[in-house]
C-alpha cells in the first residue's frame, strides 16, 4: 500500500520526514491530532472479535491483510498484517522452501533476495506488515515449527533473520518472532520456560539482538511465559532488554488471540498492539484506565511507537509499488527453484561401481523407479499460519518426469515393500522419497486449544453478537473442532525417525537395486541409523516449496551442485539430545543443545553442524584473521576446488576459546562465528573473506559481556569439528 495521493495528516508527516524534519517531531504532531478513542484504536486489531474469529476459522486464515490501527480520518494506514515465513500467506503467492531449507544454503545474499520478493508480493496485495521473520532456536529437533526457523545456531539465525528483514523492508515492515524462548509447540499456551540471564543473553536472545540492530520494524512476543511471566506482558523482556539494553525503536505486537492474559498489564509492560482483533484491550482497557490499572501515559507511549514505525517505513520507501503481476510470477518461481536446489543437503554419496551414485547420468538412464507416498504429494510444509497457497506445486515425481523425457518412470505410492522392491529391481536407479507431512509436524491446531477453559476465558462474551452465537453453535457441533484442523493437527514430532514401514521399504528397495537414493522430506533432524547403511546415497530435500520437484531433479541430475549444508547437527540416538516433553507445563532451558551438547558430552554426531557433501571437493588453507572493530573479526582463507567439476562451498568460521572445559565452565568448547559461500571452477582457488562476530566467544556476567578466555583458536572449516580446518589464534 502506498501513502494516499490526496494530502492527509499522515501523508504530510511522511513528506515532512522525507524533507528532513526529525521523525519524532512529525510523530508527536500527528499524535496530538488523535482523540483518546483513536489512540486506543491504535492498540489492537480493527476487526470485531467474533466476526474476525469466525471468518478466520471457517473461511481461511489471513486471506487478505488483517488491519490494526487504521484511522481513515487522518490517513493513517495502520498495520496491515500478512503472515509468513514460507512466503506471503495471502492470496495465491509464491511458496518458497521453508526457512530451515533456506538456512541450509548458508547464503544470506540469497535470503535477502527471497525477502525482497516476499516484500513485493505482500505490498502488491495490499499489506505492509510481514509477520514472518521467525528465528526461534530449536532446542530440540522434535519442535513442530522447526521448519519456520533457520537452524540451531544463534549466528545462523541472526544473520538469516537480518537478511530477510533487509529484503522485506524495501517494501514492507518486517516483524521478528516469537520473542522469546518459544520452541515447544503443543505446550506453547501453558508452558513456563525458565532460563538464567547467561543462557538468555548468550544463546536465546542473541539472534533477536542482531535483527534489532538490523532495524527490524516489529517484534512479536511469544505465547509461552518466561521466568514466570507471559511473554506478551513480560516487562523485563520488552522494556528491560529489548528497549533498554538494545535500543529497539519499533513496535511490539502480541501473537494472535492468546498472546496476553491481562490488557492493562501488557500495556504497562511495553506491549504496543494486541493482535489480531479487538479482544481483551477493546473489552477491558477503558475500564482499566478509569480505575487506574492502566495510565494514559502508557497509551501514548504505545501509540507513539505505532505511529513512529509507520511514518518511518513510508518515509523510507524507495521502490515503486509493484503490480499484482509479480505474485507467483515466472521470475519469483525461478527464485524458489534456485533456493530449493541450493538448500538440498547431500549426506551420503558412496560409489557404486567406478563412481558415486550421484549425480545421475542422463545418458546412462533408461528407467527409474520413484518410490514413496510423498513422491507425488504437494507437500510444502504445515497447515498452520505459515501455509502459502501457491497455485501450483511441482512434486518430486513431476520434476523428475519433466527432466527425463524418454526415460521409463515407474511410481509406487503404496506402503508396500514388496511392490517397491519389484519396481526397483526393474529400474536402472531407484529414488525413495520418505519423510513427513503436516500431519506429523507443524503449528499446533489441535482442537483441545479451542476447548481449553483458561483460553476460552480470554474471549469477549458473545452476548447478543450473532457472530459469537454462530461460532458457539458451530463449536458445539460434533466434529467441528476436528474440522478446523483439516485432519492435520501437526504439533511437535512424536518421533525423530522415519516410519517403520519407510525403513522397510528403503531396505527392500536397496536390496533389489544397489543404485538407490533416499530423499528425506523434513524440517528438523532425522535419525537414520536403522537403514542408512543399506543405501549409497541420502539427500535431505526439505519441504521445498512450489518448485521443489524441479529443484530436486536439478540436484539429482547434477545440473546444480549439491551445495546445501546442515543448519543443525544430527545425533545417532535420541539419548544424546536435551530432555523434551511436548506436554510440559514447566521446563528449564540451559545452554546445552545441538552440536554444543554433543561436543560437551563427547558424543560423535551422525552428521555435524554444517556438514554436506558436494559433487566436487574443496580444501581450505592459509587462514588469516584480523579485527574488524567492535565485536567483529574477519577471516580470510584460500579455498581450492580440488575436484573435477565446478561447485559451491560454504566456508564456516568457528572459535574455540582456549582452556575452556565445557562442563566445569558452563561454556561451549566450539562456537560458530561466521560463514560465507564461494563458487569455483574445477581446479580454481580464491581468497575468501568471512565476516564473523566475536560475541559467541563472550560470557554474560552481571556487569555485561566479558571474554570467556583471553585467546581463541579460529578455525576455517567445512563443518563443525572438521579435521581439515585451517587455523589461527586471536586475542580477545
From TrEMBL:
<dbReference type="Pfam" id="PF00933">
    <property type="entry name" value="Glyco_hydro_3"/>
</dbReference>
<dbReference type="InterPro" id="IPR017853">
    <property type="entry name" value="GH"/>
</dbReference>
<dbReference type="InterPro" id="IPR001764">
    <property type="entry name" value="Glyco_hydro_3_N"/>
</dbReference>
<dbReference type="InterPro" id="IPR050288">
    <property type="entry name" value="Cellulose_deg_GH3"/>
</dbReference>
<dbReference type="InterPro" id="IPR036962">
    <property type="entry name" value="Glyco_hydro_3_N_sf"/>
</dbReference>
<dbReference type="InterPro" id="IPR026891">
    <property type="entry name" value="Fn3-like"/>
</dbReference>
<dbReference type="InterPro" id="IPR013783">
    <property type="entry name" value="Ig-like_fold"/>
</dbReference>
<feature type="domain" description="Fibronectin type III-like">
    <location>
        <begin position="649"/>
        <end position="720"/>
    </location>
</feature>
<dbReference type="GO" id="GO:0016787">
    <property type="term" value="F:hydrolase activity"/>
</dbReference>
<dbReference type="InterPro" id="IPR036881">
    <property type="entry name" value="Glyco_hydro_3_C_sf"/>
</dbReference>
<protein>
    <submittedName>
        <fullName>Glycoside hydrolase family 3 C-terminal domain-containing protein</fullName>
    </submittedName>
</protein>
<dbReference type="Pfam" id="PF01915">
    <property type="entry name" value="Glyco_hydro_3_C"/>
</dbReference>
<dbReference type="InterPro" id="IPR002772">
    <property type="entry name" value="Glyco_hydro_3_C"/>
</dbReference>
<dbReference type="Pfam" id="PF14310">
    <property type="entry name" value="Fn3-like"/>
</dbReference>
<keyword id="KW-0378">Hydrolase</keyword>
<comment type="similarity">
    <text>Belongs to the glycosyl hydrolase 3 family.</text>
</comment>
Amino acid at each position: 500500500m502506498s501513502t494516499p495521493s490526496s494530502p492527509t495528516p499522515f501523508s504530510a508527516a511522511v513528506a515532512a520526514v522525507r524533507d528532513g524534519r526529525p521523525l519524532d517531531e512529525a510523530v508527536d504532531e500527528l499524535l496530538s491530532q488523535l482523540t483518546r478513542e483513536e489512540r486506543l484504536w491504535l492498540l489492537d486489531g480493527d476487526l470485531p472479535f467474533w466476526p474476525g474469529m469466525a471468518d478466520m476459522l471457517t473461511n481461511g486464515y489471513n486471506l487478505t491483510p488483517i488491519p490494526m490501527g487504521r484511522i481513515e480520518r487522518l490517513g493513517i494506514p495502520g498495520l496491515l498484517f500478512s503472515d509468513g515465513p514460507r512466503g506471503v500467506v495471502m492470496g495465491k503467492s509464491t511458496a518458497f522452501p521453508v526457512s530451515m531449507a533456506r538456512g541450509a544454503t548458508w547464503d544470506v545474499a540469497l535470503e535477502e533476495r527471497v525477502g525482497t520478493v516476499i516484500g513485493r508480493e505482500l505490498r502488491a496485495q495490499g499489506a505492509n506488515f510481514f509477520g514472518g521473520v521467525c528465528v526461534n532456536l530449536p532446542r530440540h529437533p522434535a519442535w513442530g515449527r522447526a521448519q519456520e526457523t533457520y537452524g540451531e545456531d544463534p549466528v545462523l539465525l541472526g544473520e538469516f533473520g537480518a537478511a530477510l528483514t533487509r529484503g522485506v523492508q524495501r517494501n514492507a515492515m518486517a516483524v521478528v518472532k516469537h520473542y522469546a524462548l518459544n520452541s515447544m509447540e503443543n505446550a506453547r499456551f501453558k508452558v513456563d520456560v525458565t532460563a538464567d540471564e547467561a543462557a538468555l543473553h548468550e544463546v536465546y536472545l542473541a539472534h533477536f539482538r542482531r535483527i534489532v540492530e538490523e532495524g527490524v520494524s516489529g517484534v512479536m512476543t511469544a505465547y509461552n511465559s518466561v521466568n514466570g511471566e507471559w511473554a506478551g506482558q513480560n516487562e523485563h523482556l520488552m522494556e528491560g532488554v529489548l528497549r533498554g539494553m538494545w535500543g529497539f525503536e519499533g513496535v511490539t505486537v502480541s501473537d494472535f488471540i492468546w498472546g496476553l492474559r491481562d490488557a492493562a498489564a501488557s500495556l504497562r509492560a511495553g506491549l504496543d498492539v494486541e493482535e489480531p482483533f479487538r479482544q481483551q484491550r477493546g473489552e477491558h482497557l477503558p475500564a482499566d484506565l478509569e480505575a487506574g490499572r492502566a495510565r494514559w501515559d502508557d497509551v501514548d507511549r504505545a501509540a507513539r511507537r505505532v505511529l513512529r514505525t509507520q511514518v518511518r517505513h513510508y518515509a523510507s520507501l524507495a521502490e515503486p509499488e509493484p503490480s499484482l503481476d509479480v505474485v507467483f510470477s515466472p521470475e519469483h518461481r525461478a527464485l524458489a527453484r534456485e533456493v530449493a536446489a541450493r538448500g538440498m543437503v547431500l549426506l551420503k554419496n558412496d560409489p557404486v561401481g567406478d563412481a558415486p551414485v550421484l549425480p545421475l547420468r542422463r545418458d546412462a538412464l533408461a528407467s527409474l523407479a520413484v518410490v514413496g507416498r510423498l513422491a507425488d504429494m504437494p507437500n510444502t510444509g504445515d497447515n498452520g499460519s505459515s501455509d502459502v497457497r501457491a497455485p501450483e506445486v511441482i512434486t518430486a515425481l513431476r520434476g523428475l518426469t519433466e527432466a527425463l523425457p524418454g526415460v521409463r518412470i515407474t511410481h509406487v505410492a503404496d506402503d508396500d515393500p514388496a511392490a517397491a522392491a519389484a519396481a526397483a529391481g526393474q529400474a536402472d536407479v531407484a529414488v525413495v522419497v520418505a519423510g513427513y507431512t503436516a500431519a506429523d509436524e507443524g503449528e499446533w491446531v489441535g482442537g483441545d486449544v479451542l476447548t481449553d477453559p483458561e483460553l476460552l476465558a480470554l474471549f469477549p462474551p458473545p452476548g447478543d453478537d450473532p457472530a459469537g452465537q454462530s461460532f458457539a453453535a458451530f463449536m458445539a457441533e460434533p466434529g467441528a473442532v476436528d474440522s478446523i484442523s483439516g485432519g492435520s493437527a501437526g504439533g511437535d514430532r512424536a518421533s525423530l525417525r522415519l516410519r517403520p514401514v519407510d525403513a522397510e521399504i528403503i531396505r527392500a528397495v536397496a536390496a533389489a537395486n544397489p543404485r538407490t537414493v533416499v530423499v528425506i522430506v523434513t524440517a528438523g533432524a532425522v535419525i537414520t541409523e536403522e537403514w542408512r547403511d543399506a543405501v549409497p546415497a541420502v539427500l535431505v530435500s526439505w519441504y521445498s516449496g512450489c518448485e521443489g520437484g524441479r529443484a530436486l531433479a536439478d540436484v539429482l541430475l547434477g545440473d546444480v551442485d549439491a551445495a546445501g549444508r546442515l543448519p543443525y547437527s544430527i545425533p545417532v540416538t535420541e539419548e544424546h539430545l536435551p530432555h523434551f516433553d511436548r506436554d510440559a507445563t514447566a521446563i528449564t532451558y540451559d545452554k546445552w543443545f545441538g552440536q554444543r551438547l554433543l561436543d560437551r558430552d563427547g558424543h560423535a554426531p551422525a552428521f555435524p553442524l554444517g556438514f554436506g557433501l558436494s559433487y566436487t571437493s574443496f580444501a581450505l588453507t592459509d587462514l588469516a584473521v584480523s579485527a574488524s572493530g567492535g565485536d567483529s573479526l574477519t577471516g580470510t582463507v584460500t579455498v581450492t576446488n580440488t575436484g573435477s567439476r565446478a561447485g559451491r562451498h560454504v566456508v564456516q568460521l568457528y572459535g574455540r576459546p582456549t582452556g575452556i572445559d565445557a562442563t566445569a565452565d558452563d561454556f561451549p568448547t566450539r562456537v560458530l562465528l561466521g560463514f560465507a559461500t564461494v563458487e569455483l571452477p574445477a581446479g580454481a582457488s580464491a581468497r575468501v573473506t568471512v565476516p564473523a562476530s566475536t560475541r559467541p566467544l563472550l560470557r554474560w556476567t552481571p556487569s555485561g559481556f566479558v571474554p570467556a578466555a583471553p585467546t581463541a583458536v579460529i578455525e576455517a572449516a567445512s563443518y563443525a569439528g572438521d579435521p581439515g580446518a585451517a587455523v589461527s589464534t586471536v586475542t580477545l
